[in-house]
Design a protein that fits this description.
Elements (H helix, E strand, L loop, with lengths): L6 H6 L2 E7 L6 H11 L8 H12 L4 H13 L4 H17 L2 E8 L11 H21 L5 E9 L5 H10 L5 E7 L11 H9 L5 E4 L5 H10 L4 E4 L7 E3 L2 E2 L12 H5 L1 E3 L1 H8 L4 E3 L1 H7 L9 H7 L4 E3 L4 H4 L3 H12 L3 H14 L4 H17 L1
Parallel strand pairs: 1-2, 2-3, 3-4, 5-6, 6-10, 10-11
Antiparallel strand pairs: 7-8, 7-9
Length: 375
């Protein structure tokens, strides 16, 4: 294995991405252009100024300002042309960053203001993704991108959105998700949707354990049957060291000794998650912005990886966090002591956990990921 993990090497590393929001990854230049076409007012009128506004708002610590950023991205995603362009550019940007497989998620119910139907929204996104895949292949950066259709947990459309996802399962939609505020909107409100998806043999993940704690994770798994956990960072609340919750220990997890890690005790829920190999879709930079973690060095992803939970590394919202898969890897290398073996493990974990047929997952692992890391 290469001894020095330079940014150039990390960028060429083949990556797998499971948790990336389509409406959180737009190019500022695209937002400016599309906003001008539809007459939508923005807080800045230059690419640099708009990019800076998104970064400042996302890092402000104000939930109101953070949510306002999505008002502007979603506003330019209300036409078939806008949706297709955003999807196409998403694929191109991921491919340029070394991503070989990705699942991009979005909520169709948020893209109806321009008169599109739910099915037309999905079709427009899939058209854009297929075009992006073709352009990436022509550029010598082949990538496979599937989509997850998301229902908003505060709304009452989850069953309708679940049926929408299943209708498009042979056109690129590979899974279902619920997203939005956890507190006050437990996943059990959407049991009808999850029961329907299981009857249809369809995959789904659930945002849980980000802003809310263990009860949200427990409901997502034990009541709803989630195959993966979106974020799941709060599973760390179920870990103790010498009877002390690990969250109360000030030493960053990156600095823990092997003896400390081996002495960590897992609560029953944490043990179940690890034993069942339930994937955790972790997003370090985003978790810092939302207060789910205090720093990269103290982010639970490092401790959970050392405890051999099935951890995956993700971007969440590339625009709002000013990030990419390469940047997330660079941060963990620089601030949490990760090496190539850690990057290999999360990449293989992601492909093992992808909502692809087994043979297709295996093909990407054996032919794209392992050759880079094992040579």
């Amino acid at each position: 294995m290469p001894e020095s993990l330079t940014p150039e090497l990390i960028k060429t590393a083949p990556k797998a991405l499971l948790h990336d929001h389509l409406d959180g990854g737009l190019r500022p230049a695209t937002i400016l252009e599309l906003s001008e076409q539809i007459g939508h007012e923005l807080p800045a009128d230059t690419v640099e100024g708009l990019g800076a506004w998104f970064a400042e708002s996302a890092d402000s610590g104000s939930l109101v300002r953070y949510l306002e950023t999505f008002d502007h991205t979603i506003a330019v995603m209300q036409t078939a042309e806008g949706l297709a362009r955003v999807a196409r550019e998403c694929v191109e940007d991921l491919a340029a960053d070394g991503v070989v497989y990705a699942e991009s998620r979005y909520a169709p119910e948020q893209h109806l203001a321009g008169g599109l139907s739910l099915d037309e929204v999905v079709t427009a996104v899939e058209d854009g993704i297929r075009e992006g895949e073709a352009l990436a292949a022509e550029a010598g950066r082949p990538i496979r991108v599937d989509t997850l259709v998301t229902a908003m947990r505060h709304a009452a459309k989850s069953r309708e959105i679940a049926e929408l996802a299943v209708r498009h399962r042979d056109a690129g939609v590979t899974g279902f998700d619920i997203a939005g505020a956890e507190a006050g909107f437990p996943p059990t409100r959407h049991l009808d949707a999850f029961e329907y998806l299981r009857r249809e043999n369809f995959h789904f993940t659930i945002h849980a354990g980000e802003a809310f704690g263990l009860p949200s994770i427990w409901e997502a798994i034990q009541w709803c049957g989630a195959e993966r956990l979106g974020h799941g960072v709060r599973i760390v609340d179920d870990l103790t060291l010498d009877g002390v919750p690990v969250t109360e220990i000030e030493t960053p997890y990156a600095d823990w000794s092997p003896e400390q890690v081996s002495a960590v005790q897992l609560g029953r829920l944490a043990a179940y998650v690890r034993d069942r190999r339930i994937p955790l879709e972790m997003c370090p930079s985003s978790n810092l912005q939302t207060g789910a973690a205090p720093s990269i060095a103290a982010h639970p992803i490092t401790l959970l990886d050392r405890l051999r939970f099935r951890v995956t590394l993700n971007t969440d919202n590339r625009l709002m966090s000013g990030t990419s898969m390469s940047r997330e890897m660079e941060l963990l290398v620089a601030e949490a002591g990760w090496g190539l073996r850690h990057l290999r493990r999360v990449s293989v974990n992601a492909m093992k956990s992808a909502f692809l047929p087994f043979d297709q997952r295996l093909e990407i692992i054996e032919n794209k990921i392992k050759p880079f890391y094992d040579d």
